[in-house]
Each structure stands twice: as structure tokens, then as C-alpha cells.
Amino acid sequence: MRIASFNINGIKARLPRLKEWLEETRPTVACLQEIKTMDEGFPADEFEAIGYKAIWHGQKGFNGVAILADSVEPKEIQRGLGIDGPKEGEGEQARYLEADVNGVRICNLYLPNGNPHPGPKFDYKLAWMEKLRERTRQIWDEEVPAVVLGDFNVIPEDKDVWSVRAMADDALMQPESRDHYARFLSDGWTDAIDTLNPRGGVWTFWDYQAGAWQRDHGFRIDHLLLSPELADRMTAAGVDKAYRGREKSSDHTPVWVDLRD
């Protein structure tokens, strides 16, 4: 069973690349972030045609998450964490979707970026992480095999970025952001990519600006956190780096974990 995460950065703009990746790698479950479409604009028929069933939580112009499963319907458990956006009266942003697929709880998230730092957007990022931790503790208490995955917008350690100095002022690697991420690990969740790449140097994002991709100036912000039940079943985890280099690609690339049945 392969479970994957892919911040697609606009599902309509990247649909050809997304379908290529799905058909070439065939993950059992594919979690998408930044679909950037209202619910009615989600191209479910395109995925149905290649064998994937989907549920999604959309929002106009930005955010949005979706869960695709090969040949089976994801059973939705929860959407949203019950936390409003940073603007007064904004309501909740489309950033969280949870479902069961083949006996595994899939928790797909697009965590707030938090820039500029300091400010209300950074405060919202930290509050959102607190809400997420509340939910993951509830899931932990259920003792179900679970994976919490997606774009966390957190660079966990210095080894996860091409230049610490270049990103020193960014919300993605502030001590508060890193501390909140570390709390998930202290709760017992396993960072799949880091566990199998302990020396770091693995990137999941390269900016479109300043030739970041060509110069390999990237960092790791897309993560897969496994419950103990799934960590024991992990056989491999990796990053599909080559897809970042394709024409009209997302600025992220897919990450995945393989599990024994």
C-alpha cells in the first residue's frame, strides 16, 4: 500500500502533470493540497476515468484539499478543525480532510504558511497547529492505524533546508514552528522521510523564483507522520523529485510511504 501526498498548486493548471504522476506511480491513496477550486469545480470525472475515487474540500482561489483512492471510495470522517482564518469574519479555510481508506485513517492537511512573521498570520499558523494536535491526540486514543500527511509549511531542522541563512527569517523555520512540529514527534508519531533519511538533504519544494530548481535550492516541508501501527509496517519512503522538473509542474513534488499489508 502506497500513501502519497502532493501539493499540486492549482489542480486545473496542473491536471495533466497530476494524472501523469497517478498513472505512472499508481499510489493506493493520493492526498492533494492547494487544489484552489470550489467544490463544484473539482474534476472528479477525470480521476474516475483512470480508476480513482475522490472526496474533496474546496475553496475559491486558494487552499483546498482532496483525498483520492485507487478503486475504492474514501470514507469521510471529518473536514476542518473548527478554527477560523486570521481575518475577522473570514470563517474556516479549507485546509483539513480526514477519511478511512483500506483500514487506514488518512489525515490530509495544508497547514498555514504563517508569513509575514511576526503577525496575525503567524499567530494563526501556531493556533492551527494546536488544533491539529488536539485532533491527532483524539485519533491516537482511537488506536487506529493512521497517517497525518501533507504540506506542513514547517522546515523541521537545519538539515532540511539548502541554506539556513537564506530562510532564517521565514515563518517556516521559526523556533515556534519547529517546536510545534517536534511536539507531534514527541507524542509518538514517526516522520517517515526523516526516519529513512537521517542525514537530511531531501527537498520537497523548490521556489519558482531565482532558479531554485536548477540550483537545487530547496527545502523539506511536505511530511508523512505515521502512528506506531503504521511505522511498524513501513518498508520504504521517498520523494518523486523528477516530477518537479517537468513542464508546468507544481513547485512541490510528491512524497510517499510504502506499507506492508
Structure explained in plain terms:
With 261 residues, the chain is an alpha+beta fold. It has a single domain (2-259), classed as Deoxyribonuclease I, Chain A (4-Layer Sandwich), CATH 3.60.10.10. The protein contains 6 helices and 14 strands. α3 packs parallel to α4 (175-186). The longest helix has 23 residues, at 120-142. It is globular. The model has no long low-confidence stretch (mean pLDDT 97). GO terms for molecular function: double-stranded DNA 3'-5' DNA exonuclease activity. Its EC number is 3.1.11.2. Residues 4-252 form the Endonuclease/exonuclease/phosphatase domain.
Comma- or semicolon-separated keywords:
6-stranded mixed sheet, magnesium, 25% helix, EC 3.1.11.2, Deoxyribonuclease I, Chain A, Exodeoxyribonuclease III, globular
Summarize the structure.
This protein is of the alpha+beta class.
Uncertain segments are none
Please state how the strands of the largest beta sheet are arranged side by side: 3-4-2-1-14-13
Whole-number count of domains: 1
What is the strand content? Answer: 25-35%
State the secondary-structure class. Answer: alpha+beta
Describe the oligomeric state of these chains in a short phrase. single chain
The tally of strands reads 14
Characterize the main sheet. 6 strands, mixed
User: Helix count?
Assistant: 6
Compute the separation of the termini in Å. Answer: 7 Å
What is the element layout, followed by pairings?
Blueprint lengths: L1 E6 L3 H15 L3 E5 L10 H5 L3 E6 L7 E6 L4 E5 L16 E6 L2 E7 L9 H23 L3 E6 L23 H12 L3 E2 H5 L8 E2 L11 E2 L2 E5 L1 H4 L2 E6 L15 E5 L2
Parallel strand pairs: 1-2, 7-8
Antiparallel strand pairs: 1-14, 2-4, 3-4, 5-6, 6-7, 8-12, 9-12, 10-11, 13-14
Keywords: Hydrolase, Magnesium, Metal-binding
InterPro entries: AP_endonuc_1, Endo/exonu/phosph_ase_sf, Endo/exonuclease/phosphatase, ExoIII-like
Protein name: Exodeoxyribonuclease III
